[in-house]
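Please describe our next protein:
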Amino acid sequence: GSTGSGTGPANAARAMRTLQLAKECDQIKKYVTDVPARIDESLRKGQNVLVEGTQGTFLSLWHGTYPYVTSKDVTASGICADVGIGPTRVDEVMVVFKSYVTRVGTGPMDGELDAKEIEKRQWGEFGTVTGR
């Protein structure tokens, strides 16, 4: 279920304690900041903070159609946890839906249309990372 180039390998390396953190990489050190601290500072000043998530619940590592999922919790609460925002700090959540489920990789999916029907309806989707 992994593209092999995103959060999956990074999360696996982190769990194995072999990941090099961005703050340890000299080439990008000047671009790295303490994101939770910066967000907290902005919220304390009464500023608005926009956090953008990706994918959707069916791709969530915890709530999705495992094993055809991404390597993160991509729900609103998971996205907030990723950047260090507690639930009491969130005033609004905006959700954008598409009318069909996406998954990582191949595998069974209830109600899935075959390739001919997808093409006929012009519902094709292209994965920019995997090329699928």
User: Anything to note?
Assistant: Residues 35 and 93 are 20 Å apart (CA to CA). The mean pLDDT is 83.
